[in-house]
Design a protein that fits this description.
The chain folds into two domains: about 70 residues, Beta-grasp domain (Ubiquitin-like (UB roll)), CATH 3.10.20; about 70 residues, DNA polymerase, domain 1. Helix content is about 35%, strand content about 10%. The longest helix has 16 residues. It has a five-stranded mixed beta sheet. It contains seven helices and five strands. It is α+β, with helices and mostly antiparallel strands. The protein starts with a strand and ends in a 9-residue tail after the last helix.
Length: about 180
C-alpha cells in the first residue's frame, strides 16, 4: 500500500512501491514544483517536507512514505506568503529559480525548529546546490525569514503585477497623424 497525505490531501498511489516519491509527486500528482536535479540526493532540488523534516524526494520511495504527511512547495503557500518565500523575494535571491523550491522547503523545515538560525545552522541545514551562486544573499534572506516568522520584521506586499489599462492609456501621449 502507498497511502499518505500530500499537501493535506490523502493520496493512494497505484504505482510500484519502490517508485521514488519525486516521480509520484511530479507524474501522478502533477506537483511539478518539486524538481529533478541529480537523482542522487546531492543537489536538493527535489526537497520536500516529510513529517517536518527536509527530505530529498528522489531518495525516498513511496513505500517509505506510507503514513506520512508530505508538503511540497505548492502546499507550503499558494500565495507566496510563507516567511521564507517573502524573504527570498524581498531580498532578490531567486535567479533562474530551478533550485528555489527545494531551498525554500529546506529553509522552512529549519525555521520550524529554529527561528533564529546562525550562519552555521543555515549552512548545515540548507545544503542545496545553486548553480547561480545565491549563497551570500540566501543566508541573509533565511535569517530575515526568521525575523518575519518571529514577528520582528514585516515586508510590505509586493506591487500587483500589471497596470490598469485606463491608467496606461493616460500615460501615453496621443500621436498626431503622421506620428508627430
Amino acid at each position: 500500500m502507498t497511502r499518505f497525505t500530500v499537501n493535506n490531501q490523502p493520496v493512494h498511489y497505484k504505482m510500484d512501491p519502490e517508485t521514488p516519491l519525486l516521480w509520484a509527486l511530479r507524474d501522478a500528482s502533477n506537483l511539478t514544483g518539486t524538481k529533478y536535479g541529480c537523482g542522487t540526493g546531492d543537489c536538493g532540488a527535489c526537497t520536500v517536507d516529510v513529517d517536518g523534516e527536509a527530505v530529498r524526494s528522489c531518495q525516498m520511495t513511496i513505500a517509505k512514505a506510507e503514513g506520512t504527511f508530505v508538503t511540497t512547495i505548492e502546499g507550503l503557500s499558494r500565495d507566496r506568503s510563507h516567511p521564507v518565500q517573502e524573504a527570498l523575494i524581498a531580498s532578490n535571491v531567486p535567479q533562474c529559480g530551478y533550485c528555489i523550491p527545494g531551498i525554500v522547503m529546506a529553509a522552512a523545515a529549519l525555521l520550524r525548529k529554529n527561528r533564529n538560525p546562525s550562519d552555521s545552522d543555515i549552512h548545515k541545514a540548507v545544503t542545496n546546490i545553486c548553480r547561480c551562486g545565491i549563497y551570500p544573499r540566501l543566508v541573509d534572506a533565511i535569517q530575515r525569514a526568521g525575523r518575519i516568522a518571529r514577528g520582528d520584521e514585516t515586508i510590505p506586499p509586493p506591487p500587483r503585477p500589471g497596470i490598469d489599462p485606463a491608467e496606461a492609456a493616460k500615460s501615453v501621449p496621443a500621436l498626431s497623424p503622421g506620428g508627430k
